[in-house]
């Protein structure tokens, strides 16, 4: 079984789920956090990727 993780923006609380991805942002389902471009920003508040922490949901 593949284990996916979730990452939360510490600024606004937006959650990125690796299993779901963000198709509307061009990020396919199953995309690992490490594979997201370093210039990607939170779609809710514009915070950088460095402002996300891995969370257990």
Describe this structure in words.
The chain has strands at 6-9, 15-17, 52-55. With 57 residues, it is mostly beta strands. It has a 3-stranded antiparallel sheet, with no helix packed on it. A hairpin with a 5-residue loop joins strand 1 and strand 2 (15-17). The protein is globular. The two termini are 18 Å apart.
Strand count, sense and barrel status of the largest sheet are: 3 strands, antiparallel
How many distinct helices?
0
Helix and strand run: EEE
> In terms of per-residue confidence, which ranges show pLDDT below 50 for 5 or more consecutive residues?
none
What is the overall silhouette? globular
Strand order of the largest sheet: 2-1-3
Beta strand count: 3
Termini separation: 18 Å
Helix content: under 10%
Report the C-alpha radius of gyration, rounded. Answer: 11 Å
Provide the residue-averaged pLDDT: 95
Please provide a brief summary of the model:
The protein is built from no helices and three strands.
Strand and helix layout:
Blueprint: E1 6-9, E2 15-17, E3 52-55
Antiparallel strand pairs: 1-2, 1-3
Give the tags.
single chain; 57 residues; mainly beta; 3-stranded antiparallel β-sheet; 3 strands; 19% strand; globular
């Amino acid at each position: 079984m593949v284990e996916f993780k979730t990452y939360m923006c510490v600024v606004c609380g937006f959650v990125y789920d690796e299993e779901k991805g963000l198709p509307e942002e061009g990020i396919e389902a199953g995309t690992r956090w490490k594979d997201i471009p370093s210039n990607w920003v939170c779609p809710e508040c514009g915070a950088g990727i460095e402002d996300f922490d891995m969370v257990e949901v």
